[in-house]
Amino acid sequence: MTSQGNIDRDLPDSIDSPEQNLERQLVLDEIADRILQVPYERYLRIAIDGVDGAGKTFFARELTNTLELRGTDVVHASIDGFHNPRTDRYQQGRTSPEGFFEDSFDYESLTRLLLGPFGDDGDGRFVRAVYDVSKEQPDELTTEAASPGTVLVVDGILLHRAELLPFWDYSVFLDVDFDVSIPRLAERDSMSPDPAADSNRRYVAGQRIYKERCNPIHHATTVIDNNNLAQPRIVRSPR
User: Fold this and answer.
1) Per-residue pLDDT band at 10 (split at 50, 70, 90)
2) To 5 degrees, how large is the angle CA 207–CA 211–CA 213?
3) Most CB atoms closer than 10 Å: which of 15, 64, 68, 74?
4) In 3D, which of 199, 200, 235, 178 has the Cα closest to residue 50?
């Protein structure tokens, strides 16, 4: 079973040549092989983390396809389906980096409705999303069922927060510089391409808070330099 995330938060660069596609696929193949070597009884939960514009959704979709080609059932979801409502997200102010880090997502619903059902004691009955941030309204809660042996791939920001670490059986952090990720986002959204712009302060400074407090590069199973989407590079492998 395959599913896509709620919102495509990442805008990929073009990957045109067969050589670039092959180089990227080799990395995806290596990650897929490592994931399938992880011992598990019922389900596996995989995190694809990184700043907005890191290429998380793009990578997660490709990883989903790569795992399926190995005969694995996969559910692809996104933390974007678990945003808090606007009033909660901006309770500390629309430009607050602390508010970005602390108030963006409904972690209780994420763990109870999506991550928990894919645990060792879970029944595989999960909800993909609770809130549609593009419409600023709750989603209709739709329960789906995953068979034992399914791999859950979740993409999104802030996935190596302390309260989420126990849920991941394998995690990837896509390491991308802000002077690459913010211009990527600017191509998609009406925003400044300058990471130092006041309009980007909430997100850039909020991600810096996350990196300082949660150290995702340390906690991730694998770190990938994804500044060049056509040529991702594994910079740290499982220890």
Assistant:
1) low
2) 110
3) 64
4) 178
